[in-house]
């Protein structure tokens, strides 16, 4: 039995995305699964659904942390966690990951990027917000390779009891 838990890598992006973003997200999901990592996402459509489709298609695990109930989950989530938290679930998505990959996105994606950076979690972006702290990547391969290489490090992205961020 392996005592080391698998890496957990989040993908964040919009529930409505372009065709290019969808293809990129699906490839990110596939490569995360092939790396033996668990995909964490918001569990809904668009970038999230495409990434889950890629991960499960490659035999991986796709965890959807939903803003509301189970009915919101895309059909490719292998594990669903309904939170009832609305957009506050974005904090749960990034807190559950050792690294975050952002694909495209709007303000919800920006909030996830900001939370991840605030928590000290590395963020790798593909055609997303160009802000300090986000490492721009050319494609899925580069983003996943960088995320996998950093996700296992202790980034300190979850505050210890009694700490504030």
UniProtKB/TrEMBL annotation:
Recorded GO CC terms: cytosol
Family matches, as InterPro entries: CHP00725 (IPR005268), LDcluster4 (IPR041164), LOG_family_nucleotidases (IPR052341)
Domain of life: Archaea
Pfam families associated with the record: LDcluster4
Family annotation (PANTHER family): CYTOKININ RIBOSIDE 5'-MONOPHOSPHATE PHOSPHORIBOHYDROLASE, LYSINE DECARBOXYLASE-LIKE PROTEIN
NCBIfam families: TIGR00725 family protein (TIGR00725)
Protein name: TIGR00725 family protein
The species this protein was found in: Methanogenium organophilum
Lineage: Archaea, Methanobacteriati, Methanobacteriota, Stenosarchaea group, Methanomicrobia
